[in-house]
Amino acid sequence: MDSIKQMNEGIQQLNKNNMSGAERAMTEAIKTDPTHAEAYLNLGKLYRKQQKWVDAEKAFRGAIENMGDKPQGDYYFEIGSVQVAQSLEPGTSRAEQEVKWRDAIKSFSEAIGLNPNLYRAHYQMGTLHEKLDEPEQADQAYRKCIELNGKYSPCFVSLGNMYIDYGFSNVAMSVLETGTKVNDTDPDMWNGMGRALLNLNQPKDAVEAYKKAKRIDPDKPDVLFGLGMAYAEIPMRKEAAETLNEFIAKAGNSPEHIKKVANDTIARMDSAI
Description:
It holds the Pfam family TPR_11. By secondary structure, the protein is an all-alpha fold. It is built from 15 helices and no strands.
């Protein structure tokens, strides 16, 4: 009972953003009861919030070791999410990333083994297989995610975008059209539709899809870029230049080669107006 009380105190401190107080209370909870799986879990979440990945992984492993006869797929999911975060650290080489992605896939597989309905684990596995250039495994994972939770739009978006990236825009269209019926307020879904239509040389329809995405999220850089490029294809030069200038203003961390394409297209549109 004392351990639960100490852990709850830690959670309260964490909610108040008092990291040292939260860590102290949760560590005390584990000292009081070294088999308290939930205390390890919450300590892991605290470390993850602080981006202390090694400590977070260690704490989550403590939760797994003490989960007893109540298997918790979520615990393995937490480890997988930490391994993915580690792969994204600046300065991580591609080889190191691939090791982390494989480790994370194993963790998410363990999570699914304990809880087959954990649709988010299937989604994460899909994204990792895609990063590893394994489209068939990614396809299976995304489709399983859709089967388990047909309202979780990121699975439709990722599956559709993967088909576009691999040159199957017509297949992407059927996936994304189904996705828009499930969730028509996800800007990424309409952005994917715009990409597919543009690749299928249907710029006018692409403009309409991108406009829907823009109405939902007016500041999304990839939507502004896609809309500008679709206008350029029609060509609606003035609208293309205006939209791509808006993209440049909001581009932020967009890749440099995308910004270059936008600037080159603006120059081409301006010279033709």
